[in-house]
Amino acid sequence: MKLHKLFTLLVVAAMLLAFAPAASAQQPVGDWVSGISCQNLDEANPAAITLEFYQEGEATAALTYNDTIVAGGFKGYYTPDTPVGLPTNFLGSVMIQSSAPLACNVNTQVLMAGAGTAANPNRVATSAGFGDAETSTTMYAPQVMKAYYNWNSYIAVQNATDAEISVTLSYKNRTGADVAAATETLTIPGYSNHVFYQAENADLPSNFVGAATITGTGAVAVTVNFYNDGTAAGTSQMHSYNGFSVGDTTLLVPRFVRRYYGYNSGLTIQNIGAAATTATITFTFNGTNYTHTTGLIQPNAALVLYATDIDELDVLDAGEMRYRSGNAVVTATEDIIAIVNEDNRGLAADNGGDVVPDTRIGQGSTYNAFTDASKSNDIFFAQITDLPAYNWAGGYQIANTTNVAGTCTATFPSAGGLEVNYTLPASGAISQFAPNVAGLDTYNAAVIINCSQPVVGISNLAYVAASGLLGDSFTTANGLNR
Q: Considering the entire predicted model, what is its pTM?
């Protein structure tokens, strides 16, 4: 049986190859490329894979590439170099067929050569591939924007079938009301994609922040990117998340920060149920719980919360910096979905009064909150980095979904099976920065986590602070629970 991984690998202008013309005013400017990271989840058998690259709106693959990933192994592709043969100025999607289960992420980023300056800041975001079971004829996007304080977004929709389908994109404002005039409908060939740019929709009002629903006559995969204007390093934030096919009455948030070395989190919650609901958010910081209850969230509406506006967390500001990173559980009486945003706006007040390093200002990332049903004892991270020669470093954060303490073991397959053991706090979290792992000198591959309690987790990466490179190099990706 083959497992299909479907990607919407897209950013405008030159998603996969560099040296493209600049984007239009409605699209993020720059020469864009992609990096694909895939982990073979079968530790006993190699994965024979086929990557088919489809140009946007085209019915025939522009490139078919065959490869093999060893048992339990990792393989990465950086599209300016691999695979060879992609058309110039390619913008599109990829369908991967594999003889073994895969976990794959894609980084969408400006071409790094020459980037990292105030005039040409770094910009990068990460999203995950979709397995067959993760696609649907109805997908939800809880946060989209048009000209919202210089923020815009786009929604990339990929046809997850081999036949042409019709796709309709509709919008809801912050109250859950339809923006009927802005509805868009078109056809997409099999396995191809289409990118909907909110700034190009004349019937969507300016200063818009709301939610979107994507429906197809066949299954689709959806990735959403929202981004600041990128005119300077401090406004280079680039965020990416996957659309949702289902929600839950309980969501799990493995990382949430408030005034943490200049970083703050945001939580956008969309009610996809049939009736209005409140949401109760239980935050855990350093073993202490803090509870916040929202007002009513109407059906289809999305509520945006920012960490510094949550009064119950005010007490954290007087505490030690290391205790301002925690996790959360969100509950409601209707099915909800949520994304978790994190950014650094360069405010000394968010860094204990200290000046924020220039290399951290303008960073931003997003991940999908986990449904309670997705938790498990095993997590796979497709890409964990410790690359001192290239100034990249990353790590992971794992949240215990129970009030019972346990243990976890992290295995680094591409480092000779190096293992790291942890104590897992009850209702708490483990945070690991890869450069701090003893015996791990250089690494850019997968990590496997096995725990005695059900967990969820995320990974992240960024340029190290000492690199001197400016802009948004910060990305976050959901771990894959099995």
A: 0.93
